[in-house]
């Protein structure tokens, strides 16, 4: 089986000003993680400063969105190449907040993922069902449809990351059970293998949804979980550091 290097990814969402870079410096100083990759995705305004602050550290910096185009008359948009120029190496795409607030469709996420890969960065493609979907028994159908529509045909398994984030678990304190996580992660792995072939064994699958220091170790011991996408708990060095340590030891 392919060796997948684990990944702890922080999503700062629309939080963070220059003084908050102190949290990143504290994380870098106090929580070395030789066995896993660590990524922080701050608001676009902080990407360049955060990469400068981390220049001597393996912690990587990413974006939370980008345009599907590489340049042009698209006021207010930022291309994947521009994120790379600012120091980003990953881009979160299709987060459920963007799917809901900006009406992002699978086709839009797919176009952005292609742009991210073309710019030499790694897309972190998010999928996940709502509570209504789960109650209606259509979790695997919804996740499968999002995955099919959001992952570009040309993807190499090792060059994309997929994050399973049940919408009902994001920012709510509700966490999926390890059985629920394993069922969806195993299904995602099987669908990716069907779609992309054996390289899909190299795709890192992250769980996201109220991951905290207290539940991280159990989640990281779950089938086909290669790390986490962490929102709220990534804002504080002590909390994110504890999650990273749990991943590093898993
Ligand atoms: C997220 O924003 O992707 C997320 C999982 O948030 P939280 O960890 O706060 O639930």
TrEMBL record:
Catalyses which reaction(s): L-erythrulose 1-phosphate = D-erythrulose 4-phosphate; D-glyceraldehyde 3-phosphate = dihydroxyacetone phosphate
Function of the molecule: Involved in the gluconeogenesis. Catalyzes stereospecifically the conversion of dihydroxyacetone phosphate (DHAP) to D-glyceraldehyde-3-phosphate (G3P).
GO CC terms, sorted: cytosol
NCBIfam families (UniProt xref): tim (TIGR00419)
Pfam family, one: TIM
Pathway: Carbohydrate metabolism; erythritol degradation; Carbohydrate biosynthesis; gluconeogenesis; Carbohydrate degradation; glycolysis; D-glyceraldehyde 3-phosphate from glycerone phosphate: step 1/1
Active-site residues annotated for this sequence: 95, 165
Chief subcellular location: cytoplasm
Quaternary state and interactors: Homodimer.
Superkingdom per UniProt: Bacteria
HAMAP family from the UniProt entry: TIM_B (MF_00147_B)
Name of the gene: tpiA
Location(s), subcellular: Cytoplasm
Protein name: Triosephosphate isomerase
EC annotation from Swiss-Prot or TrEMBL: 5.3.1.1
Binding locations of substrate: 11-13, 171, 210, 231-232
PANTHER family: TRIOSEPHOSPHATE ISOMERASE (PTHR21139)
Keywords, alphabetical: Cytoplasm, Gluconeogenesis, Glycolysis, Isomerase
GO MF annotation: an example: triose-phosphate isomerase activity
Protein family: Belongs to the triosephosphate isomerase family.
């Amino acid at each position: 089986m392919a060796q997948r290097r684990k990944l702890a990814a922080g999503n700062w969402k629309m939080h963070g000003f220059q003084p908050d870079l102190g949290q990143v410096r504290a994380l870098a100083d106090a929580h070395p993680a030789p066995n896993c990759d660590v990524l922080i995705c701050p608001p676009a305004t902080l990407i360049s400063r955060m990469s400068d602050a981390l220049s001597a550290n393996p912690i990587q910096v990413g974006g939370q969105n980008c345009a599907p185009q590489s340049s042009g008359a698209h006021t207010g948009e930022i291309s994947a190449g521009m994120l790379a120029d600012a120091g980003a190496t990953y881009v979160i795409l299709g987060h459920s907040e963007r799917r809901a607030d900006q009406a992002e469709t699978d086709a839009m996420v797919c176009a952005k993922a292609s742009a991210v890969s073309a710019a030499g960065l790694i897309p972190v493609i998010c999928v996940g069902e709502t509570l209504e979907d789960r109650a209606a028994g259509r979790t695997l159908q919804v996740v499968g449809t999002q995955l099919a529509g959001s992952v570009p045909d040309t993807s190499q398994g090792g060059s994309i990351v997929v994050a399973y984030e049940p919408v009902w678990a994001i920012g709510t304190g509700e966490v999926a059970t390890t059985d629920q996580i394993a069922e969806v992660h195993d299904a995602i792995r099987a669908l990716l293998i069907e779609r992309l072939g054996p390289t899909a064994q190299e795709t890192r699958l992250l769980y996201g949804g109220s991951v905290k220091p207290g539940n991280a170790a159990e989640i990281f011991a779950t089938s086909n979980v290669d790390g986490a996408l962490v929102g709220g708990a990534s804002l504080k060095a002590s909390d994110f550091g504890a999650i990273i340590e749990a991943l590093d030891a898993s």
